[in-house]
Specification:
8-stranded mixed beta sheet; about 675 residues; single chain
Length: about 675
């Protein structure tokens, strides 16, 4: 991959921007990363809600990246974590804060710790306390997020923060244009584009140079579509890994780069608007969208010059969104109320531009259908919604109802930067209105205003009332009704006023605690039957004797179920260096991945009349794992090999035996 001008310049600037030649070191800053990868086989990938999208491999590991910013006198601190997950989880945050309190006392608490998600649709569910809950995966995420924050704490040093904004070209498209166009013409005329194309980036600089970047850019991580079965962080993971690799390579020290999400509710990365593009396949598209975000981030890294200056402050609370009285100041139509949570028909339809959902539904449906209702109620064992609930959600036809915990919200300022923490997916125009709400209260403290979406929990979509009326997918998934956005604006306004007046936020709703109350599924299988005529770790298909730069290596091994022993590393690509072997890539390199399969286990296609059908049960049959390595054109010529770190369980309830298998060596040559 070529190095951009920004990347080349950054090689000289990473270690060269010291506090002596730049702005004053007015904050304590620290950053850290940790792994949160859980199960990679036999758990449903979350986001597309397709029961047939069952993970069978790994394309990138999942990472938590933590940032701590504090005032020099240590009076106030703010912790912001970006996880490569679909959404955040209240119980994860509770457990993380418990861990931090045990080590640091009251320094870190629910009042200053925010855990957000990139919203990748290629991460497993199960870490949140729902129907597919896995205690082991939950513990993995909690441990990783805690470790990332702990590393950021250990790395705290005086420093300063530079901020900048830049447009990202060709990295997202408006996927809900009929809804967006219902917003007032004079409002739309204020903006050049129908999506927010600006990336906002923070460059954190300590005495010896830049140590990390944190940016926000609004785009759905759906380049890896519902056809994908790899665990992956999608395009934002590509951008983060590549930026970290480049800047660590040029500085000689570890670097942290987080690509967080913003108001991307109606923004797709599938630029063809038909679940494809801009690449030749899903992985190629994810790489391209990632590169476009990366290019903007590298350019900003080199060019940002505006220092953040001013106090740090934060206010966090929770609101029972099921019954909020919203004043005329935010509705423009007199006092109104939100509704108890309910999904609409358009939720079942999915976003057409991102592949759609169940064919029984279409976006734009606004009439209740008795036939559909009978099918859904029979499948879910639910009762019809009341007339009052139907009227409250109108014009949304209700698909099903369900309770939802209070929504965590908040506002923080770091100098002239305002961060708005929301637990949902907020659309482009809804995000713009929210930023206006904050700026009206915070003034100069919100010169830069960012929507930090997917923070601290997940509560569905947030559309404008006008968008809601069209009942596109986003409106069907706006679960608290037509006044959802005005209610959030009113509550964010209240929180912002408390911050400005330096008073506490009162009357926060109790979010509850589901820890210990939800039964956990079991990862893996009962035991692994050995392959006929072979042993675990044996080669199934060996690599060729040689490959040219740009070719793809493939090698497969016999192995057991990876859920029986979650590994920190599954594959290593090694190059011979004299008498030693040096690892040059793992599954945390975009171009190396692994897929597990069982010969006799077949996953049927989605049945629209039985969309929640469980997958085939786990089997004791031995797996073959296929390791794939795409050789970059810039890869050094030489001799290489593949290592695979597997496991096998010989009998039920036994501890899994760990093993490492080695491929025959092969040469990489010039084309």
């Amino acid at each position: 991959m070529y190095l951009s001008l920004g990347a080349l310049l950054a090689m000289f600037s990473v270690a060269g921007c010291s506090s002596e030649s730049g702005p004053a070191d007015n904050y304590l800053i620290g950053s850290g990363t940790a792994d949160i990868t859980g199960p990679i086989v036999d758990l449903q990938l979350s986001g597309f809600a397709r029961s047939t999208q069952i993970a069978n491999g790994i394309q990138t590991r999942l990472t938590a990246r933590a940032f701590i910013v504090g005032e020099p006198d240590e009076s106030r601190r703010l912790v912001f974590v970006v996880t490569e997950l679909l959404g955040s989880s209240h119980e994860v945050r509770l457990s993380v804060v418990d861990n931090l309190r045990a080590k640091y006392g009251d320094l870190y608490s629910l009042d200053n710790v925010i855990v957000s998600a990139t919203h990748t649709h290629s991460g497993p569910g199960g870490y949140s306390h729902g129907s597919s809950f896995s205690e082991e995966f939950f513990d993995t995420v909690v441990s990783g997020v805690t470790e990332a924050i702990d590393r950021a704490h250990q790395n705290l040093k005086p420093g300063h923060i530079l901020i900048g904004e830049q447009e990202v070209e060709g990295a997202g498209a408006q996927r809900s244009l009929p809804a967006y166009m219902q917003n007032p013409e004079e409002e739309r005329a204020r903006y050049q584009h129908d999506t927010d194309r600006n990336m906002t980036l923070l460059k954190l600089v300590q005495e010896d140079g830049a140590v990390s970047v944190l940016n926000w850019f609004a785009v759905h991580p759906t380049s890896l579509t519902y056809n994908n079965k790899f665990v992956s962080g999608d395009h934002k993971a590509f951008a983060a890994l590549e930026m970290e690799r480049r800047l660590a390579q040029s500085s000689g020290t570890p670097f942290v780069a987080a690509f967080a999400n913003a108001n991307c509710g109606d923004v797709t990365s599938n630029l063809n608007l038909d679940n494809t593009g801009p690449g030749t396949d899903d992985l190629d598209s994810a790489r391209i969208i990632g590169e476009r975000q990366l290019d903007a981030a590298m350019a900003l890294f080199d060019s940002v010059s505006e220092p953040l200056s001013g106090p740090i402050d934060v206010r966090l609370t929770a609101v029972d969104m099921a019954d909020v009285e919203v004043s005329d100041a935010f509705t423009g139509e007199g006092p109104q109320r939100t509704c108890p949570a309910a999904q609409g028909y358009a939720f079942g339809a999915g976003s057409t531009e991102d592949g759609g959902g169940n064919p029984l539904f279409m976006e734009g449906m606004v009439d209740q259908d008795e036939g559909i209702d009978s099918l859904v109620q029979a499948a879910l064992g639910t009762s019809p919604p009341s007339e009052a609930l139907l009227a409250c959600h109108s014009p949304k036809p209700i698909l099903f109802t369900g309770s939802r915990d209070p929504a965590p919200i908040g506002v923080a300022t770091i100098g002239q930067l305002a961060l708005v923490f929301l637990p949902g997916e907020i659309t482009t125009m809804a995000g713009r209105r929210m930023r206006d709400t904050v700026r009206a209260v915070l003034g100069d403290r919100s010169k830069h205003a960012v929507i930090a979406a997917y923070s601290n929990d997940y509560t569905g979509y947030i559309t404008t009332p006008e968008e809601y009326d069209t009942q596109q997918y986003e409106g069907g998934h706006t679960i608290f009704g037509r006044r959802t956005l005005p209610a959030y604006q009113q509550e964010i306004d209240r929180v912002s006023r408390a911050l400005v007046s330096d008073t506490a936020v009162t009357d926060g709703a109790d979010q509850g605690d589901l820890r210990g109350m939800v039964s956990s599924g079991v990862l893996g299988n009962d035991f692994d039957a050995p392959p006929a005529g072979a042993s675990f770790g044996d080669i199934v298909d060996a690599p060729q004797a040689s490959y040219a730069q740009g070719d793809t290596v493939s090698v497969s091994f016999w192995t057991g179920h990876p859920g029986n022993a979650l590994r920190k590393t599954y594959i290593e690509i090694q190059r011979r260096d004299g008498d030693e072997w040096r690892t040059i890539a793992t599954e945390n390199d975009w171009f190396a991945r692994a897929r597990w399969t069982q010969a006799s286990r077949v996953f049927p296609p989605l049945d629209p009349f039985n969309p929640f059908a469980p997958p085939p049960p786990t089997s004791t049959e031995a797996f073959t794992v296929l390791v794939i390595w795409e050789i970059r054109p810039s890869t050094e010529i030489g001799t290489y090999r593949v290592l695979f770190h597997g496991s096998e369980r010989s009998e039920a309830s036994a501890e899994a035996r760990l093993f490492t298998a080695e491929s025959p060596s092969f040469d990489v040559t010039r084309p």
